[in-house]
Each structure stands twice: as C-alpha cells, then as structure tokens.
Amino acid sequence: MSNKKLYIKTWGCQMNVYDSQKMADVLFPLGYAPTETPDDADLMILNTCHIREKATDKVFSDLGRLRDIKDARAENKPLIAVAGCVAQAEGDVIMKRAKYVDMIFGPQTYHLLPEMVLKANGGERVINTDFPVESKFDHLPEAAVESPSAFLSVQEGCDKFCTFCVVPYTRGAEFSRPPEQVIEEAKRLAGRGAKEITLLGQNVNAYHGGDYDLADLIAAIAEIDGVQRIRYMTSHPRDMNDHLIEAHRDIKKLMPFLHLPVQSGSDRILERMNRKHTAEEYLAIIDKIRTARPDIALSSDFIVGFPGETDADHRATMDLAEKVGYASCYSFKYSPRPGTPGAVMDGMVSEAVKDKRLQELQALLFAQQTRLNESMAGRVLPVLFDRKGQKPGQLLGKTPYMQSVYVDASERLFGMMTDVKISRAFQNGLAGEIVTLEEVLPKKSA
Ligand code: 5AD
Ligand code: SF4
After folding, report:
1. How far is the CA of 158 from the centre of ligand 2 (A)?
2. String of b and e for 134-153 (b: at least 16 CB within 10 Å)?
3. pLDDT, tens digit, for every residue of 185-225?
4. Does the C-beta of 236 come closer than 6 Å to ligand 1?
5. For residue 193, how far is its CA from the centre of ligand 2 (angstroms)?
C-alpha cells in the first residue's frame, strides 16, 4: 500500500467532525494516513460549513493558501477538495472560480470518495453534489480511530425549514438509519473501547427507525456492555416527546445534559422563524424535563437580530434565558443565508444593534455558565478522560453535565472514568484532582 498523506480541515458542527472522521476512514484503504498540516499532504480536503455568513469567503481564502502549496510543488502535486455544505450549495461557483480545485462533493457522497479520488488522480475534475437516493450510511466503513468518546450518526437532514436555516437545502430531507444498523455500530464502537456514545443528527430527536424512536434506541444502546454514557444532539423542541423525557428519568447511562435550541424568546420572532412553538411551550418542556431529571444541565442556541426583532422581542429572549438558567449556550448574530425565506424578510436589523444585543445576551449566558461551574466546586464527579491536555501529565475529561475538567493525572488514566474532586471553576470549565481510595473509603474505626 502506498503511503500518502491526507489533510482535512473541518468547520462547523459535530456532524462535520463525524463526516471528516468517516472520510479519513474510507480513504485509509487507499493508503491515505492523516497529517496535521497541508504542507506535506497529497490530498487536502476542506470540510466546510454553510450555516452562517461569509462561509464561502472563508473557503476561498483557505483555498488560496492551498493553491500556493500546490503551485510551489514541482512534482507530486496534491489534490485539493472541497466537501461539506458550502460544496453542496456553491459547488458550481467554486468549480468556475477556482480552476485548481480538483474535487467538489456534498455531504451525501462521502462513500463515493475512493472512486472520486481515483478519477481526480487520473486528471479529471470531479463534482458531485447530488443527493443520491441510496443511503450513504450503507457504504461507510467503520471508524479506524479508537476513542473513549465516539460519535454515531443516526439521523441526517431536516424537514423543519426554519426560515433562517440552510440545512434543509444543503443536507436534504430527514432520514433515519435503521435501528439494527445503529445498534450494531454501537456494539462495535464499544468493542473497540468507546465508553461514551453521542448519537448525532441535525434533528436527532425526530429519529424514527422502524418501530424505534430515539428513546427506544437509547434504551437498546444502554444495554450494551462497555457503554457507560450516552448523549445525543441536536434536538428540536417540537420532537421532545414524553418518551424521551422519561428516558432521562429512567436510563442511568443517559447523561443529564440536553442541548435544546430555542433561538428566541419572543413568540412573534419564533413565528417568523417558523419554529412552530411558543416561548411558553418551550418553558413547559423544560419544566417537564426538570421534573424527570432535576439536575439536568441545559443548553441552547440563540440568534439575535432576526429580521423584525425589536427591543421588546430581545427582552423576551433575555427573560427566557433568565428563567431557564443555562449551563452553556451558543449565540449568534443573524446572518441572511441566500435562498432562505429570512434573507428576503423586511425589518433587517443593523449590525450595531445585533452587536449590542449579542453582547447583552452573552453576558447573561456566561454569568449563568460561571455560576453553574462554581456550584460544582468541592463536589466529586465522575469524569471520563477523553483527551490529553496541552501540557504533559495533564488529562481532560467531561463531567456528566458536559463541563470540561483539567486534571494532573497519569496518561494511563486516558480513556478511563474516574471520580474527580472539583477544586476550581472557570467560565469555560473546571479543574480538579483525582480522588484517591483513602478519601473514598470510610475510615476504619480503631
Ligand atoms: N444566522 C445565524 N445563526 C444561524 N444558525 C443557523 N442559521 C443561522 C443564520 N442564518 C444557528 C442556529 C442553529 C445553529 C446551529 O446555528 O442557532 O441552531
Ligand atoms: Fe435548521 Fe431548523 Fe432544521 Fe435545525 S430544525 S436544522 S435550525 S431548519
């Protein structure tokens, strides 16, 4: 097998991180091993995200850098590829504007990558942004990478058509993988050392594979030996059914963390966004979840400055965030995406107002996050070490509530779940110490 180097740069959501891993896996049998830099790569892939503005500009600016590397090489010129949602949405434009790009392909075509690479190596320019009818899930090989914390894609696409969002156009209609296939993959991941499995989907709680809904799927995966933690993302409030809420009460391995984006706290804006629920309905769901699992940590996405958003609407968003009390959130300024209904709505909000609202919202959300982190100080929490820290002798892991924890610990603990006593809290995470046996065991009475 020849030894070639593969460089992938990934933007955007967990779905893209997962897709990049899968691309590396399908190319492995062709002799491509990952490299961290484009400088010595034989194949460079930009796995792009189209969700917010300037995505295409960023891609072109990165492409410029890759072209310089390609031009500088006298022989063994690398292949340059653009994948992901920008490729899907703007493939034709890239094809025309950037003649040095060899391959362009959308998220539904990754299983065809070996074929495309062979063609491109033969000098052909390849563009593949179709939505094939067959499922890409049927063709993808298993992950070659071992990680204590694995992603498992169970659902793709979205039929919700929120008026700000490109996903229904770039990722296509909603599709769930058959449960047997997902459970088999979960078993194989567990067999290779995965202790935490995160079920991924653009609209994961809309999962419906045969008779299974997401709660059924979680229950089945919880039965697998070796799986200690289960998570899922991203969810839509409309699909947060009672069965899934009860799973948070009944399935111990399901972690007490839920990412449930609300986007806005104003009914008027929610309506314009086509979210199909009110603020009150969202709060009622949150109440139910908290009744089922009182310690659950909540997270959301917010958009400020959607067309037509007034100061009063913004205050409604602040009020909602205040009421819920979030563990961590993502918040964005609205950016019009061509081809979506929001882009042509009246009442565009100025950048200055968006900036001000974003700052105000983030100040509140960061304060909430810091408060939650501080409330963990002194507590002992189980932490799964899934990353190495930047300094030697440092490991990073996650609490059940998705907080990152730094610990000075031997590398031998990588991949293990261990009790950690939280010593310090920051806005972004925690620091702690491994709890030794003496601290845990009751003292012997003399
Ligand atoms: N402008 C700003 N934020 C957006 N998001 C999606 N589309 C847009 C847009 N046009 C945000 C939403 C979504 C998250 C993944 O990205 O909050 O939940
Ligand atoms: Fe986009 Fe809305 Fe679908 Fe989420 S639910 S992917 S925001 S259209």
Report:
1. 6
2. eebbeebeebeeebbbbbbb
3. 999 999 989 999 999 999 999 999 999 999 999 999 999 99
4. no
5. 33
